[in-house]
Amino acid sequence: MSTQSENVFQAIISHAKEYGFVFPSSEIYDGLSAVYDYGPYGSELKKNIRDYWWKSMTQMHENIVGIDAAIFMHPTTWKASGHVDNFSDPMIDNKDSKKRYRVDHLIEAHAEKLAHEGKKEEEFALLKTMDELLAKEDFAGLKQLLDDNKIVCSVSGTSNWTEIRQFNLMFDTQLGSVAEDANTIYLRPETAQGIFVNFLNVQKTARMKIPFGIAQTGKAFRNEIVARQFIFRMREFEQMEMQFFVRPGTESFWYKYWKEARLQWHLSLGISLDKYRYHDHVKLAHYAKEACDIEFEFPFGFKEVEGIHSRSDFDLTQHQLYSKKKMQYFDNDIDEATGKAYGNYIPYVVETSVGLDRMFLLILSNSYEEETITKEDGSTDSRVVLHIPTKIAPNKLAILPLTKKDGLPELARELMDECKPYFKCFFEEKDAIGKRYRRQDAIGTPFCVTIDHQSLEDKTVTIRYRDSMLQERIAMDKVKDLVLSEIL
Ligand code: GAP
What spacing in Å lies between the alpha carbon of 79 and ligand 1's midpoint? Predict the structure, then answer.
């Protein structure tokens, strides 16, 4: 990461803490590595992103329904899904510093360095070789790649590496009071399995016909060895996942459909296309047939924010095998080729999976601006503003009586009472108005309304727009509809 990008990223982290978006977990005890808490504005923003996703999936698609499955699941779930045997990352330790690294992260960091030095071809070649070696699980080859590129530990500065080993990322715990093996359960590392095991419950009770989807948001847990970059890689995080069940043979069509549809969802938040790119996987997860990431340009470079995976019939077949319960769907549509009903089959699945915390970081990174303002008299001022899309901003409207007297707060309260059933409003009567505007800019409130003495006379108010800072006088009874028109 360049020094400038590093500075911007650090400024975003400090801003997130100072303005009540994200705090280190249990900070009074010096925090817990890679675990974070969301503050008043953070929890509001996070909820709004989750709601925006949920609405786009379950309200805007008649053939997608939601569920809310438990975090704890029967332990055989994870045997069947392959996570017990395969959910691991290749790791390496530096013998001098005793630091442990994910091998792909070490190589990617070196590739980034090459890119900064303008050695683009070397960067691509290195990443291509890494992808191929990872796909073959060729650990000797990966170790050789570290040696050939003289990749060293950033702490000890040496290349005194151990062999590469696989580490499982699942957390386990005990169910009940007796610590026996039979009671070991896992904290789910993805929400998807709660959907698969409920596939027939949902299909039957919601009377769904293929193709249809099941959506879910919720916590997932991974014992990430290298957890860096703030909320980008956490040990406890939240996913927003949708499994789309399709007729075998149509999965490629639906994979392309969701790849495009999910990018459009990101763009619907007004984020520029140049900030996104697709990364098609060479190394596929143990369940995947085709897979890609939607990557976003964070301050530390392009990184995955969402995965689209064509998971074949792997999960349902595995659960059928391990549970000995049929996972088949009966399709009574007529196959034109044979003139007969498609009949019983295990559906194929296309999954969309986006990290809520990563989406949150994406919104913060994309919104944060340290702006220099040139005033009419030529002098300059500055502000920090979060250009959070209006639809998901924590507060939609700040209502600011100019003074605490003369009946202005009372009139402002009338507007507050009118608007607060519809969207989140904020009321503040302390401090100079400029200072109050700056505070709202810093938390990304798209509209501020000032109530002044003229408001008492003609029931008009000054509305100020966060991004342009333009102000205009409008009728107080138009404020609610103006804000509503921007958030629906
Ligand atoms: N069910 C498929 C699945 O879990 P994944 O690519 O491992 O696929 C999906 O994860 C998304 O979850 C990622 O694109 C990322 O946004 C988010 N995610 C994964 N690990 C994460 C972590 N340690 N911290 C924060 N978000 C994470």
Answer: 20
